């Protein structure tokens, strides 16, 4: 039991401990060199450039996406600013239009007022003129009625109608007192 | 029933190939597992990235995370000048990581539990550091052994210590990985053997066998951690040594 068959293969003078069996060192050296160089070539020529390019492409893509997102954000901010400016402009214009309209209406109202007032003045003046004319006519009639009344009073008193110019003179004298 | 905890490390010649100067070259079970490492590592890093998806799937995410992990580790230890060593450090990390992880599957062979494998890898790092250090810095590379700010009269003592610590790096670098893998697998095998031994003693043995069973479960979890951490340690030490070659002036 102490000596399994595997150990009987060990050449004389060799260690029983496999890692120290130098008979296998040349084989180990040859195959390690071969496989290590093979792995090195595969890594250096294929794997590492490929993974490097994958990572580079990804970081470039991420940077581009962030840049374009930034660009879109700026554009949307500009659009918002433009919208707010347009809104403010429209509000200002509406204000000025309202003011204009108000002033124009006030001016028109004043004009109408003035026109009506002038017309009223005119009519008042015409009315006063016609009143004055009517009064003068009435006053003229009063003299004729007084002369007629005086002449008929004198005729009743003296039985004879006085001459018209005498009556008028007497009336003028009476009007003087 | 006897279970040999060492047997799992035994290399077996599967196909004898050549005999060069008395040295036998054969296709071994170890060589087969080295090819499995290459195939699985390539499947993850090449197979999973074929679609080059903008939004990665699970496997592509894993491949990308591994890449970024190794790249970050290397950049943090050596700065941007060291990035030309990324393929080397990445290959080293993937090779050791897959060797460690594949070895955790029962009945498999752990390539990194062979001292010669870790020694070759550590010496590869060591010679790359020495050759690149002298090639890039010329004789200024020896400033590595003269720490800044040390009084001149200490230098006869400090410099030999620095040289010694530099020369023993491949030893500590390789033995650390080898010993961790070896010890972990032996421990797992010993506790697993306890289960089988105790289970042979009837009902009470079955009850007793639950203890090493839970031990094996816990140790397996620990060994997964060790496998990943040791691969990371191996790679980051290689990065730190490379940093000495790139920036020798401490």
What would you note in describing this structure?
The complex is a heterodimer of chains A (177) and B (250). Chain A has 177 residues and is an all-alpha fold. Chain A has one domain. Chain A is built from 3 helices and no strands. Chain B has 250 residues and is mainly alpha-helical. Chain B has 7 helices and 2 strands; from the N terminus they run ββααααααα. In chain B, a hairpin with a 2-residue loop joins strand 1 and strand 2 (23-28). The termini of chain B are far apart. Chains A and B meet through helix 2 of A and strand 2, helix 1, helix 2, helix 3 and helix 4 of B.
Question: What is the fold's blueprint, element by element?
Answer:
The complex is a heterodimer of chains A (177) and B (250).
Chain A (H helix, E strand, L loop, with lengths): L4 H4 L16 H134 L5 H13 L1
Helix pairs in contact in A: 2-3
Chain B lengths: L12 E8 L2 E6 H17 L12 H21 L7 H18 L11 H23 L17 H13 L1 H31 L2 H45 L4
Antiparallel strand pairs in B: 1-2
Strand content of chain A: under 5%
What percent strand of chain B?
5-15%
Q: Can you write the helix and strand succession of chain B as a string?
A: EEHHHHHHH
Structural category of chain B: mainly alpha
Q: In terms of per-residue confidence, which ranges of chain A show pLDDT below 50 for 5 or more consecutive residues? A: 1-10
Q: Give a quick account of the main beta sheet of chain A: strands, pairing sense, barrel closure.
A: none
Question: How many DSSP E strands of chain A?
Answer: 0
Most extensive contact = A-B, 42 and 54 residues
Per DSSP E runs of 2 or more residues, the count of β-strands of chain B stands at 2
What's the helix count of chain A? 3
Largest sheet of chain B: 2 strands, antiparallel
**Helix content range of the residues of chain B, please?**
55-70%
Let me know the average pLDDT of chain B. 90
Distance between the termini of chain A: 186 Å
Strand order of the largest sheet of chain B: 1-2
Quickly give the structural class of chain A. Answer: mainly alpha
What Rg of chain A is obtained from the alpha carbons, in whole angstroms? Answer: 68 Å
